[in-house]
Amino acid sequence: AERRRTAGVRGPGRTSDGHPVKLLLNVGSAADLRPPRGLPAVDAEGVGLFRTEFLFLDRREEPGYEEQVAAYEAVFRAAPGGHVVVRTLDAGTDKPLPFLDLPGEANPALGVRGLRVSRVRPRVLDTQLDAVAEAARASGTEPWVMAPMVTTVEEAADFARRARARGITRVGAMVEVPAAALRAARLLDELDFLSIGTNDLSQYAFAADRQHGDLADLLDPWQPALLRLVADCAAAGRAAGKPVGVCGEAAADPLLAGVLVGLGVTSLSMSAPSVAPVRESLAALSLERCRDNARLALDADGPAQARDMVIPGSAAGS
Ligand code: PEP
Ligand code: MG
């Protein structure tokens, strides 16, 4: 019965009482939008995170302008509803690219990565923004564009200026650094939306390398301190009337998805296999239940207690 119910819930994401929550996809290329043979297309409302670095990795030379336009256009054309949130290049010494030719660093995760690369190689970002704008014109879509690793209001304003100068209308930032979460309201004076990258936000809030298996408990997305940062960003979004989504792994946990919605998040972006279980979970929870669960999770001593205390939805949607 459980299986049939999952298959039965389709269409836009919503709670049992109809509160809309956009369910979006994380992709690296247009190929990620083609369903495996024999399976129906994923029922999502767009792409919430297009990780453009996949075009740049394992390359001796920077991909050319035309190649970038073609790759972006393919994603814009293939995305459900033509809705795509493009993330500009997230590379640096943690994801080294030969053509960037950056000096080695003792702490690459704390070094020149993400948007910070544009401090030393500004042309790479400008070319990418030009290519995104051209692909948008060619496909007749209006992509949203955001930068990774934004840390200060000045960085957000500079990125927004460069993107808007090219006709990009929806400009945002990923919130992956606690300093950005603490300034979410001010960031939204400069930007149209925020997308919380819980993978890096956990790493930087808990001072725990995201690859470090022995520290998995600190990186657990149910950590109340992480949820507090999410709550503050969502509150800033509500006050500004601007969208605040989550695109890290946290969004793919069906029970946590309801908590994030209760905290005020307006979209959840995840890899394709997680969409159906998350949609199903939300469809069984009222917005009030999501808010109650969010309060319980925020007040918990830790992730295990938070998981224990929240109340999953029922088929009746309580
Ligand atoms: C994140 O940090 O949560 C995120 C979505 O970006 P990535 O996993 O690509 O670093
Ligand atoms: Mg990240």
Automatic annotation (TrEMBL):
Record: active site: 247
Residues involved in Mg(2+) binding: 176, 200
Main localization (coarse): cytoplasm
Residues the record lists as binding phosphoenolpyruvate: 51, 87, 199-200, 210
GO biological process, one term: phosphoenolpyruvate-dependent sugar phosphotransferase system
Whole sequence portion shown: 240 to 557 of 566
Keyword match Metal-binding: yes
Annotated protein name in UniProt: Phosphoenolpyruvate-protein phosphotransferase
Region (Disordered) residue spans: 2-21
Keyword Metal-binding belongs to the record: yes
Record lineage: Bacteria, Bacillati, Actinomycetota, Actinomycetes, Streptosporangiales
GO CC annotations on file: cytoplasm
Organism of this sequence: Streptosporangium becharense
Domain of life according to the entry: Bacteria
Gene Ontology MF annotations: kinase activity; metal ion binding; phosphoenolpyruvate-protein phosphotransferase activity
